[in-house]
Amino acid sequence: MNSFEISRLRTKSAAEVRALIRTGELDAPTAGMADGFVQANLAIIPKEFAADFLAFCKANPKPCPLLGVSEPGDPALPAVAKDLDIRTDVCGYKIFKDGVAVERVSDISRVWRGDLVTFALGCSFSFEHALIDAGLPVRHIDCGCNVPMYKTGIATTPRGRFAGPLVVSMRPFKPADAIRAICLSDRMPLAHGAPVHFGDPAGIGIRDIAQPEYGDAVPIEDGEVPVFWACGVTPQAVLEKAGLPFAIAHDPGHMLITDIRNAEIMGVAAG
Amino acid sequence: MNSFEISRLRTKSAAEVRALIRTGELDAPTAGMADGFVQANLAIIPKEFAADFLAFCKANPKPCPLLGVSEPGDPALPAVAKDLDIRTDVCGYKIFKDGVAVERVSDISRVWRGDLVTFALGCSFSFEHALIDAGLPVRHIDCGCNVPMYKTGIATTPRGRFAGPLVVSMRPFKPADAIRAICLSDRMPLAHGAPVHFGDPAGIGIRDIAQPEYGDAVPIEDGEVPVFWACGVTPQAVLEKAGLPFAIAHDPGHMLITDIRNAEIMGVAAG
């Protein structure tokens, strides 16, 4: 599928885009596809760790806002999408062994197991959609790059073997726009909600704003302040650190596109 | 009434406190009285200017969130309080002639006229109540002084002869607390809503943060940022500038205590 064809996926429904992914016709970052539908971060882990991971998500609702959890071994997840087959309906997956990403695949049918539990977690695309709708400039989108993400000195609340630093994403704004961005994102707790910090990066233990641990650095103009949101990469970093013998996550940027409308998660609490 | 007796007014209803004011037993700043009830800024002006002033409030809902407007000559205002007599039920009034405050009185019965229209406008006490409820420190309250207020370089939207700079109030917070304060106040548009600015005072044309035009300067600690909200002194400054032959406002800090509950204005739009 070429970039012109991909750009036309904006106006498709979530189900239409998932159908293209399922048949292998589409493998690309999903930002901007199926406009208005909630996209989700993915964590697929063995049942023996699922209760602790669920507790971790509930204890850390800002980085890990829970949209849905599957039954063990069931590739469906009706809470977030009708007729979903989680083994084929996301275009990129990362397979982890002992906490290390060992492979990137576009289909996990051959590694699927009867004990796997799928967690779908909210993603910043929903609030970015609201910011853009409100006319606010979102720097990494204007730059055509990934959002910069940083490991912080803020510890998540540990549960079982799941622990580690909060990862944040950063978007710079002028103060009046930052206030609007804070208010708009606050209305979407299931998409990470309001930011956790703004201003001095050292205030949350970020060593160098020009060197994000994930994604791409973006310029911060005169009169702008960096604003930091809890980020959906946090659970992936926590999964790596936990060193589970086997786990699957989405390839960052290649999200699960759900049937949930952005409007449906407005004002809905996480956790 | 001594300070001990005044402190006991926190748990009284709005109607009980207004009754004490009406009989002349109470003349004191009303912050903290009738806990949970909305307090209001007051502007009382001749009918010939009322349509323009109403238009001004609607064009500037952040500094002038409209709670209620009376019929000309009617000292009642059932939209905000039952059995209200606006001539006696506020403990301090300022009388303006040609835009100049000429007298401070505790009763305006003797200057009342059949053409006077009362405007009740929301006040920051409601969102400060929410901040304190949420455990956030509010500096000027902790310091036992008035909130610092500043004239800005931001122009209000003019209507008729009503125009002038936005006046803001300032409360310093650490960034994470500032984010919570922004989100909490955003839920109360009728109490000025979310801030208009944070950080560099020069960004909104404030010359010297240590020299507020109204109220008292407060310390800003290391790691804190000043956060600026649209302020209910704006309409009073606008009234002065408009130079109406006759107008009445409340004595700042001596507010109209309404029967509206803070909870009732949560999420209610202004303007």
Structure write-up:
- The structure is a homodimer of 271-residue chains.
- Chain A is α+β, with helices and mostly antiparallel strands and 271 residues long.
- The first copy, chain A, has two domains: 3-123 and 242-262, 3-Layer(aba) Sandwich (PSTPO5379-like); 125-234, PSTPO5379-like fold, CATH 3.30.2040.10.
- In chain A, 23% of the residues lie in helices and 25% in strands.
- Chain A is built from seven helices and eleven strands.
- In chain A, the strands form two sheets. In chain A, strands 1, 2, 3, 4, 5, 10 and 11 form a seven-stranded antiparallel β-sheet that branches. In chain A, strands 6-7-9-8 form a four-stranded antiparallel β-sheet.
- In chain A, β3 (93-97) and β4 form a beta hairpin.
- In chain A, α4 packs across α6.
- Chain A is globular, with a radius of gyration of 18 Å.
Helix content of chain A: 10-25%
Proportion of residues in extended strands of chain A: 15-25%
Instruction: Briefly note the CATH topology name of the largest domain in chain A.
Output: PSTPO5379-like
Number of strands of chain A: 11
Largest sheet of chain A: 7 strands, antiparallel
Order of helix and strand elements from N to C terminus of chain A = HHEHEEEEHHEEHEEHEE
What's the helix and strand layout?
Two copies of one chain form a homodimer.
Chain A: H1 3-7, H2 14-22, E1 37-46, H3 47-59, E2 66-69, E3 93-97, E4 100-105, E5 116-122, H4 125-133, H5 139-143, E6 149-155, E7 165-173, H6 175-186, E8 197-198, E9 225-230, H7 233-242, E10 246-250, E11 256-261
Antiparallel strand pairs in A: 1-5, 1-10, 1-11, 2-5, 3-4, 3-10, 6-7, 7-9, 8-9
Helix pairs in contact in A: 4-6
